Amino acid sequence: MKHKIAVWIFLGLIAGIVTGAFINLFQDSYQIATYVSIAKYGSIIFLKFIKLIIGPLVLSTLVVGVAGIGDAGTIGRMSIKTIGWFLFASIISLTLGLIIVNVFKPGLDFQHTIPEAVIQNLPKTDQFTLEHFLDQLIPENIFVALSSHKMVLQIVVFSVLFGLATAAIGDKGKPIIAAMDSLAHVMLKLTTMIMWLAPLAVFSAVSIVIAEKGIGVMVQYGKLILLFYFALAILWSILICFGYFFIKNRVWSLIKHIEEPIMLAFATASSESAYPKLLTQLERFGLNDKITSFVLPLGYSFNLDGSMMYMTFGSLLIAQAYGVDLTLTQQITMLLVLMVTSKGIAAVPRASLVVIAATIAGFGIPEAGLAILLPIDQFLDMGRTATNVVGNAVATVAVSKMEGEEIKHHR
């Protein structure tokens, strides 16, 4: 299924390039404008469906995740260490994305690819105040929050509190957790169904840009892909350094052991596809199975380092493309919001786009800017998913060493 979607997205990309180039070269300005006015609905439909799933997806997955952690009373110490490491790694990843975008400013290359009408109707960013932040943070009515994709942080706060309370009442809370788990699975299935519209959105976004600006615009995407993989290389170096801190030279053996799940994750752009093999390889490396079986499942919801970095990278890139000047305080606030909103839904296909769409809306940045990322998201997703595997392997090693576990030497 995932392979088919990836193939169709790639075909949509190629078809968009060919169609856009043909229209740009052989049609007059009126015909180009007519094509754009029709083709734009491909992206519009996809974006509307993405917004549709945000509220229930965050609610269901986060309640189940938090309730599961709350049930682990007997392993509370390990929970604290694991979540603590995840938060630490998330801050590192998000901060790296923030630094890279501020230094290289890739979004400036895309300012002229956005239709003038969109720029003229650009909403102003709200000035950051404590009152404004509290309004975004604390829900007055969860049903109102669920009705708007712009109130995702309020949904997160409610979900965390609701999950903890549900876990605290023991057996009486199990039917609620089961219902939320069923809702989560329904939303995951719905997300997979919606992703079949991604090739149409990719075709729409690419063909419009090239029809209006010409084939030369693809040079911009080449630069963007190279910059993102450069950022991933830095993140890999940081993760390997953390691994070296805990297990010294054995970190190179660790990387060799997880080569196959890394390649599987890269080829499929799916963290889940690599999970069984990663679990096996970490145990072969010598990690205790009680550590791996606890840390890895949590890691695939709470510790996707490559995806985390992409979220600040993508969000700030869109802000730059629209000329939205965010202060350092606003950028740090966005970083913190992303760190919270990304927890619990990261295993969803294209979850990063969902989180970016949910977050940037609260900062006055149009969600339509996702059209910049859509054409190459598959290529970026491959790299960030492989990075997620490395991050979770290092996290498992870190928790194992903090627990005082011996890493056995297997042949």
Describe the structure.
With 411 residues, this protein is mainly alpha-helical. The protein has a single domain (2-402), classed as Proton glutamate symport protein (Orthogonal Bundle). Helix content is 77%, strand content 0%. It has 19 helices and no strands. It has helices at residues 2-26, 29-70, 76-104, 116-120, 130-137, 142-146, 152-168, 174-194, 198-213, 218-247, 250-257, 259-268, 271-285, 289-302, 305-321, 328-341, 351-360, 370-373, 377-402. Helix 3 packs across helix 16 (328-341) and helix 15 (305-321) crosses helix 16. The longest helix has 42 residues, at 29-70. The model is unreliable at 116-128 (pLDDT under 50).
> Any guess at the CATH architecture?
Orthogonal Bundle
Number of helices: 19
Biggest sheet character: none
Query: What percent of residues are in strands?
Result: under 5%
CATH class: Mainly Alpha
Number of strands: 0
Poorly predicted residue ranges: 116-128
Which structural class do the helices and strands define?
Answer: mainly alpha
- Gross morphology: globular
